[in-house]
Please model this.
Amino acid sequence: MNEVRSDVSFKVSKIFVEGFYQWLKFFSKDQKKLTKTFAHIFNPDVFYVAMIDEKVAGFAACARPENPSVHLVQKEFRQHLGFWKGTLAYRILKKEFEDKPYPFSIPENMGMIEFVATDAEFFGQGVATRIIQHIQQTTPFKEYALEVADTNLPAVKLYEKLGFREFQRVPEKHPKQSGLNFYLYLKNIPDKKI
Model:
């Protein structure tokens, strides 16, 4: 596992776009264009990347409000998506990724696990499990929380298997458009000797 470096940010962006394409295709159906658009957003101080045979197999972030996982630059969105669509994408996604507050206070000893994704080539090989375990073993937090869509059943099952338990759910304001009913918030207090 390595922290994200600029040489892998494009590969991370490709997996990110594939994983979140259902929501991102509104801005462009061209996945290559979206990959270029998002390559700049990942904070290398908080992203952890799993490499297998020199390929990016998956990643996740462990962030805090004072050190967020992503930072969006409007100029990059306009450059890759055009002025109007880039501006629209930037405004909507900044609200969703950067400015969206969690519906609970985050204590000093809690790390927020975000943007967990695995490359399709490595599905079912335990990549996400190992990344989350690595984060829990190497970061200083006593507890971890994450957000997941209620409709993402494979992710919910994985997190429950890793000891995460739901402590809050928030209804989605536009369930027909988003394809989900609730945001589930789960937390875990790991044994650091995993």
User: Anything to note?
Assistant: DSSP finds seven helices and seven strands in the chain. Residues 10 and 39 are 5 Å apart (CA to CA). The chain has a mean pLDDT of 91.
